[in-house]
Amino acid sequence: MVTRIDESAVVLIAMRNDVVLNLTPTELERYRRQIMLPGFGEDAQRQLKATTVLVTGVGGLGGTAAVYLAVAGIGRLILVRGGDLRLDDMNRQILMTHDWVNRPRVFKAKETLERINPDVQIDAICEYITPDNVDQLVQSADLALDCAHNFDERNWLNAACVRWQKPMIEAAMNDMEAYLTTIVPGQTPCLSCIFPEKPDWDRRGFGVLGAVSGTLACLTALEAIKLITGLGQPLQSQLLTMNFNHMEFVKRRPYHDPDCPVCGSLSFTQRVLDQSVRSAPANSLDWVALNR
Amino acid sequence: MTVKVLIPTPLQKFTRDQATIECTGGTIAELLDSLEQDFPGIKARLCDEQGNLRRFINFYVNSEDIRFLDGANTALQAGDEVSIVPAVAGG
Fold first, then answer.
1. What is the CATH number of domain A2-277?
2. Contact A206/A57 with Cβ under 8 angstroms?
3. Chain B residue with minimal CA distance to A199?
């Protein structure tokens, strides 16, 4: 399905069933304005349609990222978020409506997204990420968006994505600051490389503007779209830090720990493969991806 | 050796709400001592009881993680920018 030798897209293709999906006349019209983007085209649209994205945390960040994946024509979304909608969620959770307060938010997210784009398959799971459910969820998807509101869920998702070699977009915020990176196991630092330990965290202990979580969400969805389609350059091995008070956006080089307890063995395998690839014939990236 | 230090929001209560401060130090370790002199209490948030840098905080010198360099002994040059980036989990 991928004609360009693009590392990130090849990784995804290798982990996805090689299903060629045709676009309907409605889809061709719905997505016409993005299909005309240079470097996008109908191939990229078909890749989106063939992709399943797991979104953990469906609040101001994950819910808004899901909107932009849905309108872009992602094939399937798996939304995972326990708990009921609270009134103080309503300043940022744009999939919700006032009359849904005190009801499970993930089902409202599914309902709203289906009304926006009925062509997207949406699975709503009213649970938090746990050690018991994370492996099955990650295996069900081609990539994951890490948008949870606590470090436990983020750590479990990171470890499962490494275990099953699924890319993960890491997005997190606090007050007027945020960061974003794209993790491809074996190629980039994982969350544990970047932050080997996590601090105590009060999920409601900071302020948040909907425009801030929404901005981060748009960038998160864009990273996923880039990774799926090969468009542009995703933030692989780059940590984009954002200060919204001063509108300072900086790309940094986060540490890739060769001895990381989560992804260190993959990094070793990748180094061996890279050495083989250097003496391999053209299209060797396909070989690397397909042999993972 | 004067460098610019970017302070994340959770630590700005130690720096009188300043997000950017000018500080001195020939290495990251010296910089932390200098910060503590100017803003008492901040070092304990950046280092553990043994004086090691906390592992849930990244330190970048001009966008490079100091673990690629020489850790707390990373040398600083005048005009360098040191960024402190803590792990966060808001979603």
1. 3.40.50.720
2. no
3. B56
The reply to whether B41 touches chain A by the CB within 8 Å rule is: no
Residue A235: helix, strand or coil by DSSP? coil
Q: Which two tokens stand for residue A227?
A: 């990774």
Please name the residue that has the structure tokens 């719905």: A30
Note whether A161 and A154 are within 8 A (CB). no
**Angstrom distance (rounded) from CA B57 to CA A241:** 13
Which bin fits A2, alpha (ψ -120 to 50), beta or left (φ > 0)? beta
Q: How far apart are CA B55 and CA A252, in angstroms?
A: 17
Cα A186 to Cα A107, A144, A220, B79, distances in angstroms: 35, 16, 21, 35
Spatial distance between the Cα atoms of B73 and B9, rounded to a whole number of angstroms:
25
Task: Tell me the per-residue pLDDT of A197-240, one tens digit each, with 9 for 90 and over.
Answer: 999 898 888 999 999 999 999 999 999 999 999 999 999 999 99
Closest Cβ–Cβ partner in B9, B64, B83 for A174: B9
For residue B9, the number of C-alpha atoms closer than 13 Å in the C-beta half-sphere is 18
- Residue A228 burial (CB count, 10 A): 28
- If you count residue pairs, one on A and one on B, with CB atoms under 8 Å apart, how many are there? 99
pLDDT in tens, B13-68: 999 999 999 999 999 999 999 999 999 999 999 999 999 999 999 999 999 999 99
Give SS3 for A102.
Answer: coil
Of B55, B83, B88, the CB nearest to A174: B88
Domains and CATH numbers, chain B: 2-86 (3.10.20.30)
Contact call for B63 and A254, based on CB within 8 A = no
